[in-house]
Design goal:
The protein has helices at 2-20, 41-55, 70-86. It is mainly α. The two termini are 18 Å apart.
C-alpha cells in the first residue's frame, strides 16, 4: 500500500513538472530541476503551488533550496502526505 502511494506521488510530481516546464521535458526520478529540466526559480515556485493544490498540503519555502532533484521533491511530498495522514 505504501509503495503504491509513493508511486502515485511520483507520477503526480512528474506530471506537474511536465505541465510547468515551458519546453518539452521528460523528467526522470534522477533529474535535477534546474540543470536537467531547465526550470528557473519562478517555475519552481509554480511547481510548489501546483503540488500544494494537487496533494492538498503546504510545502515550507525553507525546504526549497535543498530540494534539487525530482527524487528529493517526491521524498518531501511523500513525507508531508504521510505526516498529514498520521495525525
Amino acid at each position: 500500500m505504501i509503495r503504491s502511494a509513493h508511486t502515485s506521488i511520483e507520477a503526480g510530481v512528474i506530471d506537474v513538472l511536465k505541465r510547468v516546464g515551458r519546453k518539452a521535458i521528460e523528467p526522470t526520478i534522477s533529474s535535477d530541476l534546474m540543470a536537467d529540466l531547465g526550470l528557473d526559480s519562478l517555475q519552481i515556485l509554480e511547481v510548489i503551488a501546483e503540488l500544494e493544490d494537487r496533494f492538498d498540503l503546504s510545502i515550507p519555502l525553507n525546504d526549497v533550496p535543498a530540494t534539487r532533484t525530482v527524487a528529493q521533491v517526491v521524498a518531501r511530498v511523500t513525507a508531508l502526505v504521510e505526516s498529514r495522514t498520521a495525525i
